[in-house]
Structures are given as structure tokens and as C-alpha cells.
Amino acid sequence: MTARSILTLCALLFTMAVGHAAGDGKGQGEVPEMFLKVETPSDRAYVGEAVVFDVMLYTSDPNVVDVAAVSPLKLRRGEFSDLKRVPVSKSYENVRIRDRQFYKIPVDCFVGSVADKGKYEVEGPVYAVTVSRPVIYNDPFWGRMRSSETHRYELKGADYKFSVSALPDAGKFTSFSGAVGNFDVRTVVPRGDIIVGEDAVAYVIVEGEGFLGDDIMPEYRSAFGNGMRLKSVSPSRESYMSDGRLMSRITIECTFIPETRENCEIGPVSFEFFNPKSKSYESVKSGSVPVEVKSSTIRREAIDI
Fold first, then answer.
1. Alpha-carbon distance 82 to 93, whole Å?
2. 22: helix, coil or strand?
3. Which of 56, 73, 124, 129 is the least buried, fewest Cβ under 10 Å from its Cβ?
């Protein structure tokens, strides 16, 4: 769900409240109480860990019709090693603060990570918030009429502090990929005839929660050694949000040539990563995939005599 669609939903849900205020003719000049906050699941992270930064608008007036970023999300000192804007995934809420009702609206979302340990501070972002207000005016023909007008407010959020810890020593995990998160790996061979001596394709897929940067790859080369020869690889990467978490996927298209019809098999592919939830290094492996290889004679066409 996008921030704009959430704002539209809020406006629809509170149309009746707007009508009531317009009918009374009260509160038309009042400035709504509003503030911005940057929120994360935790104020502690590890180097390389994907941290979700939600920019939340708290407002006493639900009739917000537009929110636009004025300044980007950035650190006061240092830089994010990775930072990307992602679709808003949270829903708006009704909350009470100091015995007052506020509407908590997600207006923006980022996922970032840093490469060095230390204490960091996100500079409070600036957003322009447009609110629709009911107004009453006297029409010379129709008399008292109800309409609306918009007011624009520029809000600066409070700074947000968080700390980043270094990864522990990898120890026996000598093939640590550099990935921080929780991942799995699998190998897929598409349906179709695989012919001895001819190009064939398999896909190695790493997927899970966290960043998978351009320099991160599983240990796949040794898997293509039993009755076949690896010819080339072509990786592609994508990421998406799911339940407020950044999910990433690497799909490696592996072109190989089977050299024998017997005992042809793609072996296990391993992937080592650091899991911030368990605070430990972990290793996952795909299962072996037997490959049925056919003779090149099936390519011969029948000849009519």
C-alpha cells in the first residue's frame, strides 16, 4: 500500500467528521497538532543488517490530503552503505498520547544499513503536510455554503539515534558470504530434455530477509562437477517488502554442459551468513539434484524413403 492510498483512505473514513465540523463552523482557524517521528523495530543493529526506517506522521486532524518529502533521510555523520526508499507497508492507527487522540499515519519508508560499528543519528526529516479544512461562506444567491480549503505545514521530525555493533569473528565459517539476515538456498532445473554435450540451464536461488548486495554470492561452482561442466553464470537480484521486512533474492542462471549420461548430478550449493536474530553465523545447503541426460540421437529427424 502506498502512502497516498493510505491518506486517501483516511480522508474517506473521516468525511463524516469533516461534515460535522463544517456544519458547526467551529475550529476553522485552529492549527492541528502534528509531528513526525522516525521509527525502527529496534535501536540496535549489526554492521550490514537491513534496518527499516518508518517515517510516521502523528496528527490530531485526520484530513491529511498530501505529504511530500522536503529533505531526504540522512545521517548527521557518516553515510549509509545501502539506503533505498520502499513502499509503505504499515497501516494507519488511532493512538492516545497524553490523553489526546492522534492519527498515526505512515508517510514514507526506507531500508538502510551501515558498514561500520558505532553510534549513529538520523537527522530529522522534513515533510510538507497538506490538510483539508471545512469552511463556511456566504453566497449572494444560495446563502450560507459549505466548502473546503487546504493548508500546508512544513514539519521537521525529531532526530533518531541508533547503535551498530560489529559482527563477531566468523571462526569456522570460512566461506562467510558477507550477508546479514536469514536466508535459504535451492537449486531448480526447468522441465525439458537435457541432451549430452549440449547447453542446459539450472537456477540457483538464494532468498530471505536482509540485503543481498552485488558482491554476495553462494558457493555454487563445486556443485557443477559430477558428470558436467559449468559454462557460464548470469546472476540477477531483486528485493521487496513483506510484513514490514526487506526480502531479497538472488537468481543465478547457470549454463552447464552434461558430459555423460550416467551419474550426472548437481551437488549441494552452500551459503553462509550471519543471522542477527540468533546472533550467530549459519550455513544452509540446497539438496542435490539428479539430472536425467538423454542421448543426442533424439535430435535426429525421421527420414521418409
1. 29
2. helix
3. 124
Task: State how beta strands 51-59 and 34-39 pair.
Answer: antiparallel
> What spatial distance separates the first Cα and last Cα of the chain, rounded to whole Å?
66
> Quick check: helix, strand or coil at residue 191?
coil
Burial of 149 (0-12, 13-18, 19+ CB in 10 A): exposed
Q: What is the pTM of this model?
A: 0.80
Which contacts (CB < 8 Å, 24+ apart) does range 294-303 have? 294/193, 294/194, 294/195, 294/196, 294/261, 295/195, 295/196, 295/261, 296/195, 296/196, 296/197, 296/198, 298/193, 298/195, 299/195
Pairing outcome for strands 44-46 and 160-165? parallel
| 22-51: pLDDT as tens digits | 333 334 456 689 999 999 999 999 999 999
Q: What is the pLDDT of residues 152-182, one digit of tens each?
A: 999 999 999 999 999 999 999 999 999 999 9
- The whole-angstrom separation of Cα 26 and Cα 253 is 65
Give, in order, the Cα–Cα distances in Å from 123 to each of 54, 61, 106, 156, 157: 14, 25, 18, 9, 8
- State the Cα–Cα distance between residues 25 and 237, nearest whole angstrom: 55
CA distance 34 to 126: 13
Cell numbers representing residue 66 in the block: 498530501
β-strands 270-275, 280-285 pairing: antiparallel
Pairing of strands 289-290, 265-266: antiparallel
* Pick from 161, 185, 167: nearest CA to 272: 185
Residues 6+ apart with CB under 8 A from 12: none
Question: Cell 547447453 maps to which residue?
Answer: 199
**For the residues of 80-146, what is the DSSP string, one character each?**
-SEEEE----PPPEEEEETTEEEEEEEEEEEEEE-SS-EEEEEPPPEEEEEEEEEEEEEETTTEEEE
Q: From CA 244, how far away is CA 242, in angstroms rounded?
A: 5
Cell 527420414, residue located: 303
